[in-house]
Design a protein that fits this description.
Order of helices and strands of chain B: EEEHEEHEHHHHEHEHEEHHEE
InterPro entries (chain B): AAA+_ATPase, ABC_transporter-like_ATP-bd, P-loop_NTPase, Siderophore_ABC-ATPase
Strand content of chain A: under 5%
Largest interface: A-B, 49 and 68 residues
Oligomer: heterodimer
CATH topology of chain A: ABC transporter involved in vitamin B12 uptake, BtuC
Radius of gyration of chain A: 23 Å
Shape of chain A: globular
Structural class of chain A: mainly alpha
GO molecular function (chain B): ATP binding; ATP hydrolysis activity
Helix content of chain A: over 70%
Bound molecules: adenosine-5'-diphosphate, magnesium ion
Number of helices of chain B: 10
Structural class of chain B: alpha/beta
Main location (chain B): membrane
Largest sheet of chain B: 6 strands, mixed
Distance between the termini of chain B: 40 Å
Helix content of chain B: 25-40%
Largest sheet of chain A: none
CATH superfamily of chain A: ABC transporter involved in vitamin B12 uptake, BtuC
Protein name (chain B): Iron complex transport system ATP-binding protein
Keywords (chain B): ATP-binding, Cell membrane, Ion transport, Iron, Iron transport, Membrane, Nucleotide-binding, Transport
Number of strands of chain B: 12
Shape of chain B: globular
Strand content of chain B: 25-35%
């Protein structure tokens, strides 16, 4: 190490600058200013409220209207809730991470057609191998194959869309819409070409909804999401730096390309998990990522990621609760989420265009 | 010491840096001047490993910037580019505090905070330090970015047009600060400066670039002559001695 001078701190500030008497408490925690400490406290309160809401939604979903063979019903509901927690966490984390590495607050994997890409991969695998071979295969092995293909193709799609410097937001949105539609059309074309028996099997796996999720698949998904969450939590400070953009990140000593590549793999896995479990939920991620930043008032991943995940769980479980128990409707939740999310997406686009 | 050897950079057919070789001695303030598109920003970006060179090498105190781990380099050299667009919403204080990341990771110590507060005070950012700035004025943002880079407390500080968007008072203040970094703390400051008179008044060495090459290099006295400036800018510039500084006059 070179003898680096003590640093400019102790030097007297030039006399021109006003004598701002610093009113710092003697033992400020971890080098934060009073205002920052207050902000952190606020963030923690918001997180606590969101956690309470999520717990309330989960408890309500489990217990409200529990009659008759309650043990059986509770088992069913627990599995449904586990699915929603896994899916909500996956969607929230993948969206926040995607926005960080692409440097914008409007695009998410859902908006860019990533979940449609996974549906296409699922369909093509049935198309190529036939449902019979697949039904005899281990569903976890099959899922692993789908995820591997997804990591590969999602990486290629990302390079195609975001490689080589910055691109106009509207071009990207348009590209996302085009790719999403293209993948969707290709999937439906392929599903028309496969034989009817295979189609039924495919249909089952594509539109599982929250009800009939395979327990093995759910356990594997939960494991993957938990691993992704731990990995992301450890990376959080570096993700904060990456959010400043490539140049700042490199200057501050963060290996930008390496972090981005790893984050993209994690995003592809998370999108696979949520899409495999319940199909595309295009606008949920956008909604909770934006809301999480707004409510917590920060961009720091240590706060935004859990906030977004809690919001997603609350929206999914709470929404399902209200729909099933209050309006006694079924399977309409994704429609409502996409409607609300779509309106919000358009509002965001309009706001960005005014900047 | 920064040693630049035979560095070339191309974008497609355009040669932006054409075999640049240059040595910047430790300590002091070096200004890089030249017309638009001369390659000044590209050179600074290559030196600070933000842009990979197509050929040649750059070493900082013997460390090859292309191969040295980024975090190690980040404790020795800091850089601020010309345009800094942020897509996240954060406060000035948060931005400035990021300068401490190479030293502390995500967790600031009390000593880090003192550095951050001093920089905020110095650049007169105290009033808006805790506000979320969606649309800060260009000058405020520029000062906050420079404050961040100075908080990095590195031996080498590279700045691309640090006076961007600054009014006269803040420009002078910025230059005095950079001067003090070199004089009192032994830092090596390298900056791209648009205004040749700022370069003249505040730097020890001037490097002139033209069409991707270094065309002249020397002390301020050597460089601030009508002949040199004419060759660099293709413009007739009178040089007058005012208050002990050489001032180029090119307004007529
Ligand atoms: N990313 C890039 N892609 C293509 N051309 C570039 C890129 N960056 C810089 N250039 C070109 O390189 C030349 C030098 O640019 P630059 O180093 O920014 O000059 P200066 O800072 O001296 O004005 C310009 O002609 C510019 O158009
Ligand atoms: Mg430039």
């Amino acid at each position: 190490m070179t003898p680096s001078p003590p640093s400019p701190a102790p030097a007297p500030v030039s006399p021109a600058s006003p004598a701002t008497a610093r009113t710092s408490p003697p033992a400020a925690p971890r080098g934060l200013s009073p205002a920052q400490t207050a902000a952190r406290h606020r963030e923690r309160r918001v997180l606590a409220v969101l956690a309470l809401l999520a717990v309330a939604a989960v408890a309500g979903f489990c217990l409200i209207g529990l009659t008759g063979d309650w043990e059986y019903a509770l088992g069913l509901r627990t599995r449904k809730i586990a699915t929603m927690i896994v899916v909500g966490t996956a969607v929230a984390c993948s969206s926040v991470l995607f926005q960080t590495v692409t440097g914008n607050r409007v695009l998410t994997p859902g908006v860019m057609g990533f979940d449609q890409l996974f549906v296409l991969i699922q369909t093509l695998i049935v198309f190529l191998f036939g449902a019979l071979t697949l039904s005899s295969a281990d569903p976890r092995l099959l899922f692993a194959g789908q995820v591997a293909a997804m990591v590969l193709f999602a990486g290629a799609l990302y390079r195609l869309l975001f490689g080589r410097g910055g691109r106009d937001l509207y071009v990207l949105v348009l590209a996302g819409v085009v790719f999403g539609t293209l993948f969707g059309s290709l999937s439906s074309l392929a599903s028309r070409l496969i034989n009817p028996n295979d189609f039924v099997v495919l249909q089952d796996s594509l539109f599982a909804g929250f009800n009939q999720v395979d327990p093995d698949l759910l356990a594997l998904s939960a494991l993957l999401v938990a691993a992704a969450a731990v990995w992301t939590a450890r990376l959080a400070p570096r993700l904060d730096v990456v959010a400043l953009g490539r140049d700042h990140a490199l200057n501050l000593g963060v290996h930008h390309a390496r972090v981005v590549n790893r984050v993209l793999v994690v995003v592809a896995v998370l999108v696979s998990v949520s899409t495999a479990l319940v199909g595309p939920v295009t606008f949920l991620g956008l909604l909770v990522a934006s809301l999480a930043r707004q409510l917590t008032g920060t961009f720091r991943h240590g706060t935004v990621l859990p906030a977004a995940a809690l919001l997603a769980v609350t929206v999914l479980v709470g929404g399902q609760l209200v729909l099933e128990r209050v309006f006694t409707m079924d399977t309409a939740l994704s429609v409502i989420i996409n409607f609300a999310g779509g309106v919000y997406f358009i509002a965001l686009l309009i706001r960005e265009s005014r900047r | 010491m920064i040693e630049i050897k035979d560095v070339t950079k191309r974008y497609g057919e355009t040669v932006v840096l054409d075999g640049v070789s240059l040595t910047i001695a430790p300590g002091g303030v070096t200004s890089v001047i030249g017309a638009n598109d001369a390659g000044k920003s590209t050179l600074l970006s290559v030196v600070s490993r933000l842009v990979p060179a197509d050929g040649g090498t750059v070493t900082v105190d013997g460390m090859d910037v292309a191969t040295t781990p980024g975090d190690r380099l980040a404790r020795r050299l800091a850089v601020l580019r010309q345009d800094n667009h942020l897509s996240v919403r954060l406060t000035v204080r948060e931005l400035v505090a990021f300068g401490r990341f190479p030293h502390s990771g995500g967790r600031l110590t009390a000593a880090d905070r003192d550095l951050v507060e001093e920089a905020i005070d110095h650049f007169e950012l105290g009033d808006l330090a805790d506000r979320h700035l969606d649309q800060p004025s260009g000058g405020q943002w520029q000062r906050a970015h420079v404050a961040m880079v100075l908080c990095q407390d590195t031996d080498y500080v590279l700045l691309d047009e640090p006076l961007n968007n600054l009014d006269m008072r803040h420009s002078a203040q910025m230059m005095r600060r950079l001067r003090r970094m070199a004089d009192d703390y032994g830092k090596t400051v390298v900056m791209v400066v648009h205004d040749v008179n700022f370069a003249s008044c505040h730097s020890d060495t001037i490097v002139a670039m033209k069409d991707g090459s270094v065309v002249a290099q020397g002390t301020t006295v050597e460089m601030m002559t009508p002949e040199v400036l004419n060759a660099v800018y293709d413009l007739d510039i009178d040089v007058h001695e005012i208050g002990g500084h050489r001032i180029g006059v090119y307004f007529s």
